Amino acid sequence: MYFYKLFNKSFISIGVVLLPFFVWLQTAQSETLEDILISAYNNSELLKSTEYLVTIQDETINQTSALTRPNLSLNLGANYRSYNDTTPPNRNDNSLLGSIELLATLVVYDFGANDIAVDIEEIRKQAFEINYTQTEQTVLLGAANSYQELLRANNLLELEKNNLKGLESQLEAAKNRFELGNISRTELSLVEARIAAAEGNVKTREGQLEIARELFLLSVGRYPEGLSASQFNFNIPKDITSAMELASQHNPFLLQAKLSVLVSQKQRELTKIRVSKPAINLRGTASSDLNLREFGDESYPQNNLTVGIQTTIPLYSGGRLSAALRQAELDLQKARIDLKHEAKLLENEIASAWHRLEIADSLIDVYVEQKDYSELALQGTRVEESLGTKSTLDVLEAEQELLSAQTSLVEALIDRDSAKFTLLSSIGVLTMDYLGLNTTIETEDTNPDSN
Predict the structure, then answer these.
(1) What's residue 127's pLDDT?
(2) What 8-state DSSP symbol labels residue 29?
(3) What does the alpha-carbon distance between residue 423 and residue 248 come to, in Å, rounded to a whole number?
(4) Which residues are CB-contacts of 166 (< 8 A; sequence separation ≥ 6)?
(5) How far is Cα 410 from Cα 13, in angstroms, rounded to an integer?
(6) How far is CA 302 from the centre of its chain?
(7) How far is residue 227's CA from residue 153's CA, in Å, rounded to a whole number?
(8) pLDDT in tens, 71-114
(9) How is residue 446 annotated by DSSP?
(10) CB 110: neighbour CB atoms within 10 A?
(11) CA-wise closest residue to 104 among 74, 142, 67
(12) Among 12, 24, 50, 276, whose Cα sits 20 to 30 Å from the Cα of 168?
């Protein structure tokens, strides 16, 4: 319960603690994390591609279902026949024959094999739908992380710039004090050295910001326009047990592993039927043959009509059928082992994500205190420097301590929010519906005319 309350209030704390850092990010058209997630969802080509897999599987189901329906086909043909009789009276018969045949087949009884085959394809469709959910989570997690990384890069750059400005103003004061003989050349050089280091840090942070922008482009589909540090609220499990229970119901990899077991069971059942119980088919043909050379000269077509029941009983297949049965059984055993392994991986993943969130959350209070104490220490050191009891080096060290504390606080806040999204993704609920974000993907109409 403690962490549940702490997580809820943390959405406010990020704006309060980092208000001095985030103010410069606000623009007239600043985007919230909610806006970023919606934009990433709408712009994702990967999601659009994955959505088509479900539609494609629908057509596979239709094809499988059609196997038990009547099948009609029309065969047309023309043949040239040369007949030479070497016995008296030595007849030669050269004929051009035309034929037309209507063939109809219908599965009378297949012992439920096709129903099982349709069930298998329906289960595979569920797997594709779950895969879509996993893809959606990947897209949203990538967008959330890119947003967090951009905030991180922006704020760390701003800290370094502020530090550089402070050092530059301190350099001017140090030069004046050096001219008055209040400090040594060594102390002045220390300030100049710190400025050079700060300039290098600014360049590094600027490069990291550009990298974060490119990551944002990849994840969201466009460059950022202006970010807002405000957060929208969503539910976090109150404890690790609740997280585990939710994951057992929603984690896509675990659900797909369960479906794999079900498919293997159905496949084994289907293989047994096809090996030992061949389907019984009704077959009928209506054909007509006509001599095209004698067409119109009192030539009459030869008409045939046949109707019958047909089945094929395998007598010997070289061990192929028994191997198919063994393979189906082995596939089922492997699927069950994979399910157990996936359950263990999920348990470890949830525990790791939960503890990372706990660590990041607990560090925030520590770094807030460190920052506050560092500010007080810096103020006191500057006063003591003016009284001559502290040196310039002491002031530089105090400023470095404050910068380090501010940096650690920014890192902890970003890590905490990133850990939340990672936890939701591990559970399997990092979706638009769970986050309360309503949007749709527009897809092209690709349904062809039915034949």
Answers:
(1) 95
(2) T
(3) 14
(4) 399
(5) 12
(6) 64
(7) 12
(8) 889 888 887 766 665 555 555 566 777 788 888 888 888 899 99
(9) -
(10) 19
(11) 74
(12) 24
pLDDT tens digits along 146-179: 999 998 999 999 999 998 888 888 888 778 777 7
d(CA 325, CA 340): 23
Q: Is the dihedral of CA 75, 79, 85, 90 positive or negative?
A: positive
pLDDT (mean) for 5-29: 42
What is the C-alpha radius of gyration for the chain, rounded to an integer number of angstroms? 38
Per-residue pLDDT tens over the stretch 162-171? 988 888 888 8
Residue 411: closest CA among 445, 450, 371:
371
Strands 71-84 and 92-109, how do they pair? antiparallel
CB neighbour class for 65 (10 Å; exposed up to 12, middle 13-18, buried from 19): middle
Integer Cα distance of 122 and 222 in angstroms:
37
302 and 95 Cβ atoms separated by less than 8 Å: no
What domains lie within the chain, and their CATH numbers? 2-69+110-277+320-435 (1.20.1600.10), 71-109+279-312 (2.20.200.10)
| Matching residue, tokens 């159905």 | 266
**Single pTM value for the model:** 0.79
Q: Which among 42, 169, 84 has a CA at the least distance from the CA of 443?
A: 42
pLDDT above 70 for 22: no
Beta strands in 125-167 (DSSP E): none
Check: CB of residue 129 under 8 Å from CB of residue 51: no
Name the burial class of residue 402, with classes exposed (0-12), middle (13-18) and buried (19+) by CB atoms within 10 angstroms of its CB.
buried
